[in-house]
Amino acid sequence: MSYLSTNSSTSSSSAYATASASKRMSGLMSGLDTDELVKQFTIGLQNKIDSQLQKKQVASWQQEAYQSVIKAVSEFQTKYFNSTTSSSSILNASFFNTTSIINNSPYVNVSGSAAAAKNMKISSVNHLAKQSSFLSNHKVSNQKIQTGEVKAEWEKSTVTGAALSFSFEGKDYTLTVGKDGGTTTLDKVTEQLNEQLTELGLKDKVSFELSSDQTSVTLKSIGDSSGSSIKVSGGSEALLKSLGIAKDASGTEITGTTDATALYTNTNLDESLAGSTLTFNLNGLSRTVSFNETERSLYDTPEKLANFLQTKLNSSYGFTSETPEKSIKVSNDNGKLSFQVVGSDGKTSTDTDTFTIVSSSKSGVLGINGALKVYAGESNRLNTNKTLKDIAVNLSDSGLTPSAPKDPENPPASSVYRIEVNGKEFEFEETESIDSILKKINNDPEANVTITYSNTLDTFQVVAKTGGASSKVNIVDKDGGTLAKALFGSSNIDVQNGQDAEIMVSLADGLPAQKITRSSNNFTLDGVDFELLKTTPTKNADGTDFEPITFTPQNKTDDLVTKIKDFIEDYNNILTTVNTFIDEKKPTDGKYLPLTDAQKADMSESQIASWEKKAKQGLLFNDSLLNSFALDWRHAMTDQVASLSSALYEIGIASTKYSEKGKLTIDEDKLKKALNENPEKVASLFTGSDGIATRMQDVMTKYTKDSLVNTGLLITKAGSTTSAVDQSDLAKKMRDYDTQVKELKVRLSSQQEIYYNKFTALEKYISQMNTQASFFTSFTST
User: Fold this and answer.
1) Structural domains of the chain, with CATH
2) By CB distance 3.0 to 4.6 Å, which of 114, 260, 374, 418 could disulfide with 553?
3) In the Cβ-directed half-sphere of 734, how many Cα atoms lie within 13 Å?
């Protein structure tokens, strides 16, 4: 008689986990329900697992509740406090304006105090302010696209971005090589690996050592960590093969026989290009050149490739005439290809035509290590993302000369360029990009300029930020360098002097017009903000005299009342949400714990939803943190503003019932009266240094600031949905529950296996007894 062997496993999502055993015998001999018995014997551990999972679910629901409060407060803060320009922000200076200024003039925009503006008259706008500037006629680039050296055959790296992972002293590490795309030698690989070990703080603990004959690489623990085991857990196949190190290799010294040929493959030009397309753009007109398989012999060398592209571009853009108005000239200089938009003579560059290599349909064609040795997006203009070192070959002036070292005895490791902008000296290393240089200068208040590059004109423009007639722009090279000359040229600079704005304005009814000069077109007079748009004429189009510009105030009290009502309503909504959580008690008709997977399996979706609704009730009943927030939230809004000895109830905003727990109502008539009689006081209640806005911002910072420094109390408790890593108290608690569940499941599996082994032994014993009984029966029957 034989017995059956059963293999059993349970999904990890199941609340009840059953151990698997390859030699388990079911109750065929004994008639016992083995699975049910094992389940009953281990029910204690399973209940502990369910309990931990239920606790985790409760913590998760609590976190969701807290985060709903955090989200509401965050939206409130964004709407009313994060901007000084938004119309809904109480920090906006115009938020509490009860009047606006009606202004239909095309010569000036005004805002601010309508009371002051209504008495003003502008007789004329004589000049607009202009800042000093210059436009250079100097063409910065040579207006060519220049590739690197294109080759018919070359070695292509197989370890670009390749990774190697290992564990050491209880931690996992991953190293990456070949970021430059040109790594094809073992010494370069080991150099990059050891550089990353230094960055990870492992320089004195772990090392890659390449033998002098480059036949072996040893990964070993060194220094105080000598003797500590290292285990290689994975990595790029090509990288591991080149080092001779196998995945899962371990020890204090892991030595491999190197294979340098695994670092590269031999490839050729036509193979890399075949089947791909290149997209070009000339003045916004895109055309695509195809490298067909059948034409490989036409582009298998740099010389042939230049002729192939010339023919294709001429055809694509219709350059068929012998002397076209313009065309794209493709040249080859010892493998370096250049593309230039030329005029009818076929030689002279055009000034405003832009030409770009947009993209390729196939990888390995573009990029510094692609077949064409040129980046996607490269154009016949200055690439401001490139470093000073890299753009030197693209400048119209031949190269760049660095500034002389300030200390000749200790020269810098790389070339530096010093320029002076309006008396402020800047120093740039050759590794800095043009974009970086422009940002540093443009953001410096002492330099006081804005420098921009025109891609179409291939020139720089420099404009002073402020100063009007007293502004200046002066950029010079320092200590023999030529950076300023290369970018801005040394001649043909058209300098425009600055100019002050000038208006004739009467500031009050009955006063004569006065000449007002300012260095900017935006300025403030007696609480009225002016923006000058253009100068006024002396005569109208019909020949009549130009009439002075006047302004009419318009009452906006109703609009302001609406904005304040919205503010109070949003405040109330947050308070209601918090109070609901605090006041909500647990159900009185039973104890509703989160459902286990086993319980859910016996219920419908509607039953599950109904149960979980009750299970979520009262999770934050009388919560101390929410109570504290609600109290601070109410005090920030309703307490007296000390500097004014006044509070909101005096302008018609108050809580009318104790049962409302701080919820505010508005007496619109009383509020309108306060706004009409003393709008400045109402504004000060909210925006004064100790006003409502300041107090509410303090409360929001205290509870919902999402930062590594001075984290808000609610964020500390429950975290934020926008945080990349949740280190909140509840998140840590849930991770602890996960750890306990994991440990309990290991114990459960072990116990199950013990019981199953015992039942298997029982079944075998019964089977043996049955066999013996059959044997004796056979004798007696004869």
Assistant:
1) 62-90+558-695 (no CATH), 107-129+500-553 (2.60.40), 151-266 (no CATH), 281-372 (no CATH), 393-496 (no CATH)
2) 114
3) 19
What is the mean pLDDT of the segment spanning 41-54?
A: 92
The closest of 396, 483, 393 to 438, measured between CA atoms, is 483
> 352: exposed, middle or buried (C-beta count within 10 Å: 0-12, 13-18, 19+)?
exposed
**Bridge partner residues of 504 (DSSP):** 124, 515
What values do phi and psi take at 175, rounded to 5?
Answer: -110, 145
Please report where in the chains the tokens 């919820």 appear, as a residue.
Answer: 663
In 395-551, at which residue ranges do the beta strands (DSSP E only) sit? Answer: 416-421, 424-429, 449-454, 459-464, 475-477, 493-496, 501-506, 514-518, 522-525, 528-532, 549-550
* Other Cβ atoms within 10 Å of 582 Cβ, number: 18
285 and 277 in contact (C-beta within 8 Å)? no
* Lowest-confidence pick of 598-607, 638-647, 724-733: 724-733
Q: Is the pLDDT of residue 543 over 80?
A: yes
What's the mean per-residue pLDDT of the chain?
89
Task: Look up residue 100 and give its two tokens.
Answer: 């606006």
d(CA 128, CA 120) in angstroms, rounded, equals: 19
Residue 662's closest CA among 582, 584, 579?
Answer: 579
The answer, yes or no, to whether residue 492 has pLDDT greater than 60, is no
* pLDDT given for residue 19 in this prediction: 42
Whether pLDDT at 398 is above 70: no
Q: pLDDT tens across 548-587, in order?
A: 999 998 888 999 999 999 999 999 999 999 999 999 999 9
- Confidence (pLDDT) at 32: 81
Q: Which residues contact 768 (CB under 8 A, 6 or more apart)?
A: none
Helix (H, G, I), strand (E, B) or coil at 395: strand
143-159 exposure pattern, b = at least 16 Cβ within 10 A, e = fewer: bbbbbeebeeebebbbb
CB atoms within 10 A of CB 119: 16
- Convert 119-173 into a string of H (helix), E (strand) and C (coil): CCEEEEEEECCECCEEEECCCCECCEEEEEECCCEEEEECCCCEEEEEEECCEEE
More confident residue, 80 or 98: 80
Q: Please list, in sequence order, all residues whose beta carbon lies within 8 angstroms of the beta carbon of residue 322, skipping any fewer than 6 positions away.
A: none
State the pLDDT confidence band at 212, using cuts at 50, 70 and 90.
very high
Quick: pLDDT tens for 178-203.
876 778 899 999 999 999 999 899 99
Torsion of CA 338, 344, 349, 351, to 10 degrees: -130
What's the gap between Cα 4 and its chain centre? 59
pLDDT of residue 260: 93
Separation in Å, CA 60 to CA 63, 64, 440, 590, 605: 5, 6, 47, 21, 20
Report the C-alpha gap between 367 and 361 in whole angstroms. Answer: 13
- Residue type for position 646: S
What CA–CA distance (Å, rounded) separates 219 from 337?
43
Q: Are 532 and 75 in contact (CB under 8 A)?
A: no
Residue with tokens 């025109």, as numbered in its chain: 454
Pairwise CA distance, residues 174 & 162, whole Å = 10
pLDDT surpasses 80 at 436: yes
Q: What is the CA radius of gyration of the chain?
A: 40
Does the predicted model carry a pTM greater than 0.85?
Answer: no
